[in-house]
Amino acid sequence: MRDKVIFLVLGIVITVLFFVFKITLYDALYYSSNVFTYDFGNLDDYTSVALITITVAWGMAAIYYYVINSVKFDRWYHWLAMLGLVAVLTPVIDYFVTSAIVEDKDYGREILAFEFHNIIFAVLLFVIASFSMRWWSSNCRHTPIPQ
């Protein structure tokens, strides 16, 4: 039981650190030489993008391990399908939210490139969330890697 709690707390701490250092992490992964990065930071869009990324990753992990939680859906490739869904859903939602925030400027390409890089964070957070909460699942706790 203690190991399960350690994994959960560690996952939460890593996620909080991601949120705290979101600007540094996003700028390290994607930096546009034009005013997009400056406007993006001034509009505090990093906060909305990071919150959406965290919510989708942790939410999809929770759905997989506690809502679906089926013996028929407990294989590694089912988990991989959920990971793929996170990798597609997160940038799409982020793109529309970001486009709405900077609607008066033409940043379509920059937002698209930024969201392509954001897939990396979405996938990493989903993996962290999976290993943080899988231990309490009754049927899917052995996915993606058996204990």
Q: Outline of this structure?
A:
The protein has 147 residues and is mostly helical. The chain has six helices and no strands. Helix 1 (2-20) packs antiparallel against helix 6, helix 4 (45-68) runs antiparallel to helix 5 and helix 5 (76-101) runs antiparallel to helix 6.
Give your account of this protein's structure.
The chain is mostly helical and 147 residues long. It contains 6 helices and no strands. It has helices at residues 2-20, 22-29, 36-42, 45-68, 76-101, 108-133. α1 packs antiparallel against α6, α4 runs antiparallel to α5 and α5 (76-101) packs antiparallel against α6 (108-133). The radius of gyration is 17 Å and the shape is elongated. The relative contact order is 0.19. The mean pLDDT is 87.
β-strand percent reads under 5%
Shape: elongated
Determine the mean pLDDT.
87
Give the beta-strand count.
0
Question: What's the story with the biggest beta sheet?
Answer: none
Helix share bin: over 70%
What is the alpha-carbon Rg in Å? 17 Å
By DSSP (H or I, 4+ residues per run), the number of helices equals 6
Structural class computed from helices and strand pairing = mainly alpha
Q: What is the succession of H and E elements?
A: HHHHHH
- Unreliable runs: none
End-to-end Cα distance = 14 Å
